[in-house]
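Example 3.2
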Amino acid sequence: MDGRAGRVYRSRMDSPIDFFFDFSSPYSYIANEWVDAVAARHGRTVRRHAILLGATFQAAELKSPVSYPIKREYSLRDFARSARFEGLPFQLPEPFPQSTQNAARLFWWLHDTESPAAAARWATAGLRAVFARGTALQDTAALQALATDQGIAPAAAEAVWSDPLWKARLKRANDEAIAAGVFGAPFFIVEAEPFWGNDRRPQIERWLQEGPF
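Structure, written as tokens:
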């Protein structure tokens, strides 16, 4: 292997898995529980991106599956079945779907002012709150309670999600995701290769193990 090829190979092997998620996405909750372990098995890290599905749906001229009566009952059934398959607790929040922009703004605040690891912990706490316990994070009191559990004062949390700076940061994350071709969640990009959906796990594993196929 010549020097340039070796550098390219090492660069590929060191690249993180980009993981795009929405706090309102049941499949994002499930994927968030396995993506770090998959990455670790292959010497990778995970780079999380909190986004809003509504923004990606609008850009792609799509709607949520639960917006269609013929798909809604199947989707609701599959959310729970997919969680059971992974051995995860599942409780659909009420209402569903719900607005999660404030939780996402807090994610980016933690990401940019503290660390990506702190933001990842918030992502896990938020997704588990929504889909393991049925917490409605669009409710201010519920979101403040979760923030308190994570060591964030309620007033500080509200100040963050009300701040134009963090509103703009989330909008930038949405715009960047759309520019990268993201149209749903969970969405993964591995070495510029896109994978959409929790059910892409076997393909991601093979890609990381063997390279392009």
